[in-house]
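Ops channel
N.P.: pipeline sanity check, posting one input/output pair.
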């Protein structure tokens, strides 16, 4: 794995862009040519001032900041709100380097939108990270546009591997990926909420109930990660024949969790398609 990245520009270094930026810095990787990050306000830009190797730009003070940042960087990460993307693309298109790779983390914005704004020859990769990027544990889906080369994808993959794991998919699978890893943290948090409520119902105070539920999830996933085992195998090891866990698992399986998760992710996918159609 190479120990450097080419110059980076984060256009809209908000929550997701900012998480990726922080991951790059925390990794200690060398960024040849440095990092530029833009935000609309001086207040938001001030949060990034002083980070090593980062030039933080407030657009209210430097109106040409996005154009200048895009012109200077090999990899441009577009992290503005989805509705702002078309205008931003038109703004930066004349200034892009010939070897520029444009990466979108704007939810729901298609590669076709980027081709319209930048031209069909532009190298564009669509990325869908999830919120654990903020702690270096993301799952990021990558879908490459037609003009992006294997080398382009490799360098962008290296960038996102600094904040977690990467799955490469065709664009028509990006929305489905979003129903699993994109929305997935919320499913886990909901399960923790409900297990906490069950503990409170059995007489534990809220602090102890939270500790038991939360740390059990954290510990179980850490064990899964460390062991390299299949989760079904780890479940079997906890589930002694004719024991208490077996009885509890039977109740959960009788609730048809397989159908529940299929229906939930199907519903998320249907909503994603509605949003893409402007509904």
């Amino acid at each position: 794995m190479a120990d450097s990245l080419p110059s980076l520009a984060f256009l809209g270094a908000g929550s997701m862009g900012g998480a990726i930026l922080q991951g790059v810095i925390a990794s200690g990787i060398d960024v040849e040519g440095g990092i530029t990050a833009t935000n609309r306000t001086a207040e938001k830009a001030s949060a990034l001032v002083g980070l090593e190797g980062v030039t933080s730009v407030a657009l209210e003070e430097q109106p040409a900041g996005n154009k200048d940042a895009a012109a200077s960087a090999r990899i441009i990460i577009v992290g503005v709100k989805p509705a702002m993307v078309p205008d931003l693309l038109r703004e930066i298109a004349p200034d892009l380097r010939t070897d520029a790779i444009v990466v979108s983390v704007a939810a729901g914005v298609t590669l076709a939108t980027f081709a319209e704004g930048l031209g069909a020859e532009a190298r564009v990769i669509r990325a869908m990270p999830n919120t654990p990027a903020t702690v270096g544990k993301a799952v990021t889906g990558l879908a490459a546009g037609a003009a992006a080369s294997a080398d382009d994808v490799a360098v962008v993959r290296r960038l996102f591997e600094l904040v977690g794991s990467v799955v490469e998919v065709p664009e028509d699978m990006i929305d489905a990926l979003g129903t699993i890893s994109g929305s997935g943290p919320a499913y886990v948090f909901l399960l923790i909420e409900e297990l906490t409520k069950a503990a409170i119902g059995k007489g534990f105070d809220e602090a102890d109930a939270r500790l038991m539920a939360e740390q059990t999830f954290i510990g179980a996933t850490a064990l899964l990660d460390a062991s390299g085992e299949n989760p079904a195998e780890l479940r079997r090891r906890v589930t002694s024949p004719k024991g208490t866990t077996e009885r509890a698992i039977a109740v959960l399986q009788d609730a048809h969790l397989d159908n529940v998760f299929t229906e939930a992710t199907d519903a998320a996918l249907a909503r994603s398609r509605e949003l893409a159609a402007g509904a």
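N.P.: looks fine end to end. The longest strand covers residues 30-39.
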